Amino acid sequence: MRRSGRTVMLHQQGAVVGSGDEGLEGAAVGGGELEAFRDHGVTIFVRRDRVWLPMDLTLTADEQAFRDEVRAWLKDNHPGPAPSGGDQVQFEFEREWQRQLHAAGWAGISWPREYGGRGATLIEQSIFGEELARARAPRPANVLGLVMGGPVVIAHGTTEQKERFLEPILSAEEIWCQGFSEPESGSDLASLRTKAVADNGGWRITGQKVWTTFAHEAKWCMLVARTDPDVPKHKGLTYFLMDMEQDEVEVRPLRQITGEAEFNELFIEGAHVADENVVGGVGNGWMVAITTLMNERAGLGASAALGLANALDELVELARERDLADDPIVRDKIARLKIGIEGLRLGAMRSLTATMKVGTPGPEGSIAKLQWSSANQALCELALEVGGMEVLRRDSLWAYRFLRSRANSIEGGTSDVLRNIVAERVLGLPKLR
Length: 433
Ligand SMILES: Cc1cc2nc3c(=O)[nH]c(=O)nc-3n(C[C@H](O)[C@H](O)[C@H](O)COP(=O)(O)OP(=O)(O)OC[C@H]3O[C@@H](n4cnc5c(N)ncnc54)[C@H](O)[C@@H]3O)c2cc1C
Prior knowledge:
The chain is an alpha+beta fold. It folds into 4 domains: 2-55, no CATH class; 61-141, Orthogonal Bundle (Butyryl-Coa Dehydrogenase, subunit A, domain 1); 176-291, Butyryl-CoA Dehydrogenase, subunit A, domain 2; 300-426, Butyryl-CoA Dehydrogenase, subunit A, domain 3. It is built from 11 helices and 16 strands. Helix 3 (122-134) packs parallel to helix 7 (302-321) and helix 9 packs antiparallel against helix 10 (397-405). The protein is globular, with a radius of gyration of 23 Å. It binds flavin-adenine dinucleotide (FAD). Flavin-adenine dinucleotide is lined by residues 177-181, 186-187, 211-213, 263, 407, 410-411, 413-414, 416-417, 420. Flavin-adenine dinucleotide binds next to strand 9 and helix 11.
């Protein structure tokens, strides 16, 4: 449908189901009545049992000005390629980059202004992520603090917690890690066994965590522990901010298939957490943990699609160099990847529209995570096929990407578990259990 010169489409569950205008209001579609309202300058159609989302892919003048500002800033301030010299050198480079972003007001742009952010709209966040990907800018060092820790403190923290924790996250002065997974509790997070016992105005934590990314750099850990073993498993959990700089916390690095030691095991023997570092209240850890995970998946989207599109361009170049650009099988695989990446980008725009309407990211973030991980793995596999022995060298970027991509279908929720979420919570299929 056309309105104010802008194209608006009507979507349901990923498919274009038609177009319409204000005359649609009150119409019955698929057994449900449509109601229209305006939000952020677009018309949203809502049915009682489903959300009908018009997707508007054009930018307003303000949004274009925002994009130009980001693009110009990145052009003048891009730090260049990451230096070689190992994990620590790379991390310090990313920390310096985040300081630079923060000084210019570009760290945590989605956070409200009162907490040091930029109060950016969801569309601006998406533009910002896309521009970073387009410029091939490095990631900021404190990515877990920016994407999960800060938003969780903003959503569930006390005033004192907001004052204490938010600014050092933005400036990368204090790095955060996420202590959720345990040796026997990964996908089934609620079964975790690390326990917290009340102790003299605080808590003593004992247990083991695993796969804890950046624990070796972190000052604070978002940690979920069991505070009540006698209630149903989801209800006995509490969310703590644990100081990593204490003798009772031992961090042991785990070396990945890439050769990097990005994540760790945590051995915790009676570590102290003050009462004031409980987030969301004792016994509410499950609810706070879910906010953390939804923010983790909501962070993926248009920028992930653009990152993949960059890599696909490089793959096409590789195919040309190897005289395989006309090979029908290679062409077919590249075309499939291109379609998948475009699907991811459009799906991200749809999720943005839904989040604008509902206020918080929903379970649809799981679809983007699934699409991104399978596309990235397929892309890296094709690069090895096209590049042959030469790209299998230890120092080759494609070999690194291929090896790193193996974790994509595990980290941030395995693909099997995400498919369950999509089936049950997005598509509304019956639950097995
Ligand atoms: C690179 C990387 C970084 C990570 N960083 C962190 C971090 O910083 N903090 C943190 O807490 N964790 C982190 N993790 C851990 C990650 O969240 C877990 O690995 C993941 O949730 C899976 O848990 P698990 O490894 O215990 O596997 P399990 O849960 O034991 O799963 C084993 C297998 O069973 C399947 N499975 C399990 N349950 C179901 C089900 N209900 N239906 C169908 N299939 C099922 C899984 O898909 C998988 O194939 C990281 C992992 C990786 C790879």
